[in-house]
Amino acid sequence: MLYRYCSAEGVVDEHSNINGAAQSIAGVVNAGGNVLGMMPIRKTMSKTSWAAPTAAACSQAWCASGTRGVNSFHEAAARGRCGVHIRCHRRLRAGFSKTPRHLDRAVRGRRQFGRDRAYRRRADGTALGQTIVIENIGGAGGSTALTRAARAEPDGYTIAIGNAGTNAAAYTIYPMLPFKPDAFVPIAVVAKDIRIVALRKDFPAGTVREFIAYAKSNPGKINLGHAGVALRIS
Amino acid sequence: MPASLFEFPDLQEFVQAAGIDVTLVDIVVLAPALTDTIGGQIDGVCDAAASVSQSIGDRLVKGLVVGSTVRLATLPDLPTSAEAGLPEFEAQGWNGLFAPKGTPPEIIAKLNTAARTAVESDAVKKRFADLSTVAPEANEHAPEILQQLVTRDVEKYRKLLAPPQ
Q1: A195, B133: Cβ pair inside 8 Å?
Q2: How close does chain A come to B159, measured CA to CA in Å?
Q3: Nearest residue of B to residue A188 by CA position?
Q4: Close Cβ partners of B59 (under 8 Å, ≥ 6 residues apart)
Q5: Where does B1-93 sit in CATH, by number?
Q6: Could you give the ipTM of this predicted complex?
Q7: For A33-44, how does the pLDDT look when each residue is reduced to its tens digit (9 = 90+)?
Q8: Mutation choice for A interface testing from B5, B34, B59, B147 by most A CBs within 10 A
Q9: Which residue of A has its CA nearest to B98?
Q10: Distance from A146 to chain B by nearest Cα, in Å?
Q11: Which residue in A186, A194, A131 sits closest to A160, CA to CA?
């Protein structure tokens, strides 16, 4: 073990373990000392719903979120609540052109790497009147993200996007997964997606029937790919 | 044999349904399976409609079959698995929102309402349609529906991915 995630003061703690790595491991080296493996660092993106809405709408949303009796957007802004942004917010402030200075927390959504487009729309946050910060956490086919979500405070400010991979198949594929199905409570199904099988355009078959006939007369010759993290199980 | 959290089980279903012997290729990062199919390095790909449909529309790859019971509005010429003679290939995935265990029920209810409001909005409907992604039906918004899918699929993949005895 060569590198571990730690705070600026050099303290190894869960707060600094941004990928949810086991034992905060960030990098390992082989016995010979000539091969170094490093944990990929998440990409973080954000989007704010506060740029456009009117002050009235903001005020409503603000009250709906039940935050300490602040009853107007202007009042909230005037109180200058920027000092209480949570960690991920501070980190991102440089990236916001219109940082919502009055928000004291952000709803965090986690999603598996590679399923961004269908979810990005969901990050507008207009239904909750909250800025939602999307943290894209890569690793282990989405299990790294779900691991972090499973360990988060159960206060409604951290939610995760899961699917049949991360929240069903993962339990068989990764027997050592640090969370079990009961680590989560379901909120809602938000999308159903459908799989398509497609072939290179010059493949000598155009229908399933032709494809099967070709595959049967050329056993083992066809290569089919799938997106996603792969591991060998046998 | 390679396995993936996401498309591999679906690809496996397709291969089993077709009763054919093919080589399944690990593609470790995001889009290369599709890219490699477009480039001709591999013969085919099994991936979400949201990823593949545009390339089929642009004729960069050839659509073979969609693993659902109804045709996609974005690709009306692509046959369903039953139409193509592979009714066993039903690869409809789901995406759900989860909260950590212990999140209070009233917060779950509020988030559920927000999710429902979002997926029923015109903006999301349009975006989903463009992506060939399907929104849950009116009777599929309850948290219990998601729990049923999890329970069902944990068992499904336990059987499908079990190492050979």
Answers
A1: no
A2: 9
A3: B143
A4: A201
A5: 3.40.190.10
A6: 0.73
A7: 777 777 655 433
A8: B5
A9: A186
A10: 9
A11: A186
Nearest-CA residue of chain A relative to B84? A208
Alpha carbon A73 to chain centroid, angstroms: 29
Task: Answer yes or no: is pLDDT of A174 > 70.
Answer: yes
Q: For residues B14-49, b (16+ Cβ closer than 10 Å) or e, as one string?
A: bbebbebebebbbbeebebbbbbbbeeebbbbbbbb
Give the C-alpha separation, A111 to B69, whole Å. 27
Contact A187 B135 (CB under 8 A): no
pLDDT digits (tens, 9 = 90+) for A56-93: 232 233 223 332 222 222 222 222 222 212 222 223 33
Going B60 to B62 to B65 to B71, the CA torsion angle's sign is: positive
> In whole angstroms, what is the distance from residue A207 CA to residue A210 CA?
5
> Cβ B93–A163 below 8 Å, yes or no?
yes
Query: Which one of B95, B127, B149 would you mutate to disrupt binding with A, by most A Cβ within 10 Å of its Cβ?
Result: B95
The domain segmentation of chain B, as residue ranges, is 1-93, 105-160
pTM: 0.58
